Queue: 4 jobs
Job 1
Amino acid sequence: MILDILGYVRQMVPLGLVALVVLLFLRPMRRSRLKRLGLVSSVWRETALALFVVFCAGLAALTLFPANFWGYVFDWIFRRSYWNLAWRGKTLAGFYPSWEETVSQFAYLSNMLTPFEEITRALNRRSYWLLFMLLGNIIMFVPIGFFPALLWRKWRWWKSLLAGFCSSVSIEFIQFFIGRSTDVDDVILNTAGALAGFWVFRLLCVIFPSFAKIFQCQPRGGYYRG
């Protein structure tokens, strides 16, 4: 399981680093805008924002490209033979399915749109890989519901639910055309994960009443420094 997780993290790294560089490049403009508004952003907030941006970019790398695409790019850049990649020698264009292969997927569209079929199969078979994917689809979207609630004021549970749902639907739609598996159960699990992220935030606020304050913009000269 640890190797599986590390493999996914490895694929998220390239775009995550690019997103971090872009965020740092835009930081002076963001600071100027906050200054005009009479607000400041603490180190805590900037760190949380950076983590969220890196995560979103990593999630895009993991879900909006063909399977193992970034693993191939990573290997191509560093030319490491010890990764023992099964796709060695494959061109980047070779990761994308042909139009005929994409069209053929429409025959299975009814199966893809049947709710709870994959979830039930995973629970009944008790397969390690199926259960890993089921839990992964939930946990992967927890930050989508958690970080916006942490970083922005007046965030509500339905906003996290909507963010998770819209993000997941967009991902599943794109995956249909890039040779990835598309399933309505992924949308259900992803949305549940985003909603769970919001309630994790609310629980932390109950346990630590000042938790959210240090991660939100505050009036200049009066923000929390603890």
Job 2
Amino acid sequence: MLGVLANAAGIVLGSLVGMFVKKGINDRLADAVMKALGLCTLIIGLSGALSGNPLVMILSMVAGTIAGTALDIDGHMNRLSDRLSKRFKAEGNSSFSQGFLTATLFVCVGAMAIVGSLNAGLKGDNQVLFTKSILDFVTCIMLAGGMGIGVLFSAVPLFLYEGSLVMLARLLQSVLSNQALITEINGVGSLMIMAIALNIMGLTRIKVADLLPAVLFVPLMYALAGLLPL
């Protein structure tokens, strides 16, 4: 769990630094940097998405989106962020929600969070999570500089998410050691990273939280795809 703790700490420290230097970042600079960050994120997501089986990705995304929309995950996360905003009396409720949701999805969804947690659980290797903690530290400086304290609270779902993956990997070691399956999970997660990037650049308003269950459908779709005579 050391890697998970390091990742959460990176988010908290990055957010604090971002809020501290917020006054030194004008709106024009913050907007330009966020768009550049979104573009880099898009490339990262694209490279990961291309590694998966298109059939598995499509089936998983369709099933996951149906489930996520039915469960209204995005709505629940918005209501959670609203409660946190009121609890800590944050100024600018919509800004708090935007920061919390954007940062949570950014740091939780993607190849590094999944692979890093699986490596930590399966092999005790925290290298990927340590690397991710540095990247999230830099990212949260910019996010918190533009969106405020809501970004800091993304450390909580990040800790729960990666911690759960580490524990799950330890329990299901024989199943999750399948490298091909991990590749498919990474592909679906990377597609969500692309959606986050498009939102950051202001090109779309995709409810990425409603896509999250797609990751859970990957093992099933991977097994089904293996039965097809392709």
Job 3
Amino acid sequence: MSSGLKSKLPNYLTLGRIFLVPLLVAALVQLDVRWRIGTLVITNDLLALLIFLVASGTDMLDGYLARRWGKITTIGTLLDPIADKLLVSASLIALVQVRVVPAYIAVLIVGREFVVTGLRSIAAAEGYTIQASELGKTKMAAQVVAISCILGSVRHPALLPVAQWGLWVVVLIALISAIEYFRQFWRKVDDGVKQRRRRELLTAERRERLLRKKRAKAAQQAI
């Protein structure tokens, strides 16, 4: 495989995940999908599950390829978390629309994503980077399992209890990881403010010292 393709393939996979989001939402909210391929009948819930699994698979594959080939790029670093949040948020909102997931659970999970994204954006504007925590990575894996079980429970109701427990596990991890992100944010920003104030005080003291020297020199010259 050429070096140019290696450098672009992880980003293409990330973009592909973003483009799969509208298809996933359409499959979830469309209630009359029924395709027959031989003995297999593909309904909207099965189609949505397949799209979601493919999209989730690209999430693992693009990061693996980027690390293995040493092709981690700035655009990939920026797009990957956006693609993840779009995939999960769109899935949960669509599942609320079809009355499969309670709205308050979707609000908690999606709201957490907005809060964490906002904190990381503010930190980035201040020149700090808040790295993804291990809890955040665990949350993504738990979300994939929970949403997959919800989609699969349409045909296999035995998966529904697992899906419900999985959602509560996701909510718990989401809240704990949000607190961890806030602690990192507060520590970095608070330290940054203290360092900035210290530099400002030192600069002001230096200017005051220079001003006193100039006044003393002017007084000597006047004598």
Job 4
Amino acid sequence: MVRIKLNPITRTVKGKRVVMIDDSIVRGTTMAYIVGLLRDAGAIEIHVRITSPPFLHPCYYGTDIDSAGKLIASNHSIEEICKIIGADSLGYLNKDYLPLLISDDIDHPICRACFDGNYPTALYGGESKDKFEC
């Protein structure tokens, strides 16, 4: 599906430094594939910037984020992830900036559990997303 959806335009990428911006890296497989496509199209440098902090913990509240064991940032440093996906550099949003970007007050708290592990409710069995959903 990714190959059907994403096709770099070689004449636009070839010989260029590319900055690729995405909302998140969950497992890293799609990002590695996209970086490979850009390299194959002739990009000389690929710098990846992610508009969220690294996903370190599974989400049990609606976002489809798998168990921590399958989250690339839960098991690797930013430098290791950069190497795994084949980018020249990788940067994430610092989690401390989230309150500056999103309104967070006592009446409308923002859940940051996937970034910091502080879940707003007790977890039932909590070691895997699938177990919680059952």
